[in-house]
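Bug #2210: token dump truncated for Phosphomannomutase/phosphoglucomutase?
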Amino acid sequence: MSDLDKIFKAYDVRGLAPDELDEAVAEAVGAAFVRLTGATTIVTLHDMRTSSEPLAAAVGRGAVSQGADVISGGLGSTDMVYYASGFLDIPGVMITASHNPAKYNGMKLCKAGAKPVGIETGLAEIKKMVADGVPGYPGEPGTVTSKDLLPGYAEYLKKLVDISSIRPLKVVVDAGNGMGGYTVPTVFEGLPITTIPLYFELDGTFPNHEANPIDPENLRDLQAAVREHRADIGLAFDGDADRCFVVDERGEIVSPSVLTAMIASRELAREPGATVIHNLITSQAVPEVISEHGGIPVRTRVGHSFIKAKMAETNAIFGGEHSGHFYFRDFWFADSGMLAALHTLAALGHGDRPLSAILSEFDRYSASGEINSEVTDQAGTTRRVKEIYAQQPGVTTDELDGLTVSGDGWWFNLRPSNTEPLLRLNVEAASEVETAAIRDEVLGIVRGTGTRSE
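Reproduced locally. Full output below:
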């Protein structure tokens, strides 16, 4: 048995395949998952990695050994698992390592109704059962049935966001050889969209670039293609297509915070007064826009388990993260990159303005992006930063997630990595000059090259 401490993460199971995550582990997880949930039926899907189909089959074997039936969905995106789990009201397992390199694979699990399974909501129990050996099941084994879930998924999304009457659009889509290449053609079928596909061939070796659109380097081909084809918009999906990044008609990358604010305004037009969740790294423009449109902004920690829990607790209509994850109440509080893409296409296609003009009202501040610093003492360094800034007049601090320091028209957050000796810095201010000055000041303290100027 592999080292389970290595592969059981906060929100999923992930590791090198097959060195750390092999079929024996997957089979044991499938069996333990059925024991945990008491499910009589589960659904499995997998991405395009070479190890994914065998791992999905192994999960299925484990599940049927405990008497559960398995709906084998075959290829799919992670939000297709959420759709199947929510629509059919059964637990689901997605075999994917998302945006990680080709040598990795993993499992994302959810309970019936797409409720997340993390280390505090069942994953620790599954890990213990796998380590101890899952008890045998005395009854009859279950059965495996194949089912194509893609048509139902596409139909459901298009009911949530109707874009059948939009003006004709030219859309470049970079699937990064990931699952967007499988889902986009069916979702866009019958719509007034001319799709220019980049890297739609399913290839888990990622021959063109990493399927990780949060890294601007991986968006360069999309930006170039939007300019070359004079497209209206560019969309980029990560490997399992649960995240979506957008490029406007100029080829400029759109901040996920801007998309969060825009989608929030659309959802609040549909349900005035609703709650919208945003994590504390999103732009200050997000809570401003939510309030301006009559909504209730609720700030939360970074991480999908916190977002989903807070959404369920507040019955929030929508939630957004700086990392390109977008969550929808009508999608069982789960995240869907495709649904975010449809909202953006609707906003663009139901008017005649270019995307950059539509989004300009939501793009209000300058942001540094996330900057990592390696430190030997995360807590001590963070304390030092707090001590220096807390003395300043008009400055407030909070520790909801790491340290957030706010002043007049600016803020920064300094957050420790859970897995590496890093501190992650995000800065936002009214101008690029002010953002750069605050960034350099904080990095000077964190990296020991200076202190805050008085």
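Output looks complete on our side. Residues 4-149 form a domain with the Alpha-D-Glucose-1,6-Bisphosphate; Chain A, domain 3 fold (CATH 3.40.120.10). Marking as cannot-reproduce; reopen if the truncation happens again.
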